[in-house]
Amino acid sequence: MKKILIGALAIAALFMSSCGRNVNKPVEEEIVYSNYPENSPVERFGKLQVKDLQLCDQDGNPVQLAGMSTMGWQWCGECYTQESVETLVREWGISVLRLAMYVEEEGYNTDPEGFRDRMCNLIDICGEYGIYCIVDWHILTPGNPLDPKYAGAEDFFRFIANKYADSDHVIYEICNEPNNCLEKGDTLKPWECTKETDVTWDMIAEYANTIIPAIHNEYDKVGAPHPIVIVGTPQWDQLVDACLKEGMCQGNGKDLCDSLPPRDARLQFDNVMYAFHFYSKEHNEGFEKDGKSDYYNMYSYMYDVLGKLPVFCSEFGLCAANGDGELDPDRTDKWLLMLSGKNSGEQLVSFCNWSFSDNERSSSALNPGACAAKNWNDLTPSGEYIKKVLSVVNLGKADSSVLKESNVYSK
Ligand code: IDC
Fold this sequence. Notes:
Layout lengths: L2 E3 L1 H11 L14 E3 L6 H5 L3 E3 L2 E3 L9 E5 L2 H4 L5 H11 L3 E7 L9 H18 L2 E7 L14 H12 L5 E4 L7 E4 L8 E4 L4 H21 L7 E3 L2 H4 L16 H6 L12 E8 L18 H8 L5 E7 L11 H11 L11 E6 L24 H13 L18
Parallel strand pairs: 5-6, 5-14, 6-7, 7-8, 8-11, 11-12, 12-13, 13-14
Antiparallel strand pairs: 1-2, 3-4, 9-10
Helix pairs in contact: 4-5, 6-7
């Protein structure tokens, strides 16, 4: 979706109609025609930017995007079509779709060109409906973005940035969930990590300091403002403020994290945001462990972080981090209310729900078989909840069954 400047055309027309006489009425405002649909999110907000802590529209007003994340296209590719995106826009009211492109896990590395084409196709569909999309380089195992398995990142991002530098709706997420797992178990216990190493903020920063300039370079070539780039943070996007602390704080050791000396290792680029992911059944106010009740309170941690860094919540689920099991809507309310400004920075944090898919896990918004049947509203309990949330946040519809004020987290 390109923007066409018609200011120049308007001047030419004035000259012609005045038969070459000097036209002394200057064209005061450059008229910009955008072919994003009228009243669509991108048409209204334009090119996004980060000001201080806040994601803002082109004019500097705060913006909160809310939408869905895809699952892996290699597993449920039939869920992502022109028709499903249209339903998500028109009936669910999403303003952003995260395009999760796994790199390992049978993803991009098996067919780089095929996956890249699919990415472009989905970017184009999002543009056609005037919603933002997130180009997610979805690394998972190994969890180090510098791993040789991810060596294709720079070429991939150069290609996308070159193609879309003059489009306003493309956001970049340069690495999903950095984490310490290098290798997963065999087929008997595929979820078990068999080899670990520390993946620190400094390693992520080294990666970001290569990829972000590569993206920016393509935008600079056409004189376009730099796009929003979301950067992953250690421990599956949970140690969000690692760039403000010396050393590595791992696990849920609150005392350890709090005692690390402060530093400023933020990335030195405009329009950078830090990724945060939560799964409410697991990441919440903490729970008892070994008889102790002072376990890590993620709410309290993020409440503070949101006053320090611009954050984008590109993934969250109502269930546990394995994407399955019991849902916790009340605790999800608590998180989403915090993201909607009830935090120390009064920051409006954009979010995407995991996931728009129809597999058998409880995090899927659709029931198994829904995508093959093109039944885009065959909702699971998670899907029902999130569809209501989106209508409250994006469409401003009152629905007291979600985002209950009684669930506000207060410090
Ligand atoms: C999970 C999928 C699952 C797939 C697995 C691949 O739900 O079907 O087998 O990935 O290893 C994340 C990750 C995301 C996970 C999701 C749910 O970003 O890739 O998807 N999750 O476990 N972080 C926390 C949870």
